[in-house]
Write a structure and sequence with these properties.
heterodimer; A: mainly beta; 7-stranded mixed beta sheet; about 50% strand; globular; B: mainly beta; 6-stranded mixed beta sheet; about 55% strand
């Protein structure tokens, strides 16, 4: 029962570097989401997707791009990382208006 | 915009005792859902309990139950017979009916003392 799998679990970047976070789900869910979690804050929605080939902005989309080329995968990209993007990133998936199931998170540090 | 407020940044409880975590929300909608998620030190977000706004009956899952006061826009979580494994961050979350988006509160850190 893999559920939602995030890769990598930890990453350290230098300012200006780029990287891609991968989220994979095996539950055949239509919807997928990317959140960030900062100290003292709840999770905030970055981008989400309601189906293959579609993406939409959430609450804090600036500095991030996403792609959903396959139903089971949702990629989060940072083109030019900034220290303000130091955070823990969570991916989630769900059926339409269903319960969201979360991955274990990726801790990203930008120096 | 909908907001979710958890007024207790930290709470503690003795093992086997009962604790209640508070959550209030602000919405003008009538169709919505409320959730409590648990985040242990492993970081994994785990759904504890869910409540549909149209249901008057409070949701219950084993030792976890909610007190849903729709008019007061209050959604508290009661944990009975607290166990050491209940120690975690607890997040209250709101989703408007028909929407994909979850709005989270800032969380309450629960410590369980042996």
């Amino acid at each position: 029962n893999a559920g939602v799998t995030q890769t990598p679990k930890f990453r350290v970047l230098k300012t200006g570097q780029s990287m891609t976070l991968l989220c994979a789900q095996d539950m055949n869910h239509e919807y997928m989401y990317w959140y960030r979690q900062d100290p003292g804050m709840g999770l905030r929605l970055i981008h989400y997707s309601v189906g293959e080939g579609t993406t939409a902005k959430g609450e804090v989309p600036d500095g991030y791009n996403v792609s959903r080329l396959k139903k089971q995968n949702f990629l989060l990209g940072l083109e030019s990382a900034a220290p303000s993007q130091t955070s823990v990133y969570f991916c989630a998936s769900s059926r339409p208006t269903g319960i969201q199931y979360f991955g274990a998170g990726t801790r990203l540090s930008v120096l | 915009a909908q907001t979710v407020t958890q007024s207790q940044p930290e709470m503690s409880v003795q093992e086997a005792e009962t604790v209640t975590l508070s959550c209030t929300y602000d919405t003008s909608e009538s169709d919505y859902y409320l959730f409590w998620y648990k985040q242990p030190p492993s970081r994994q977000m785990i759904l504890v309990i869910r409540q549909e706004a149209y249901k008057q009956q409070n949701a219950t899952e084993n030792r976890f139950s909610v007190n849903f006061q729709k008019a007061a826009k209050s959604f508290s979580l009661k944990i009975s017979d607290s166990q050491l494994g209940d120690a975690a961050m607890y997040f209250c979350a709101y989703r408007q009916g028909g929407s994909e988006k979850l709005v989270f509160g800032k969380g309450t850190k629960l410590t369980v003392n042996p």
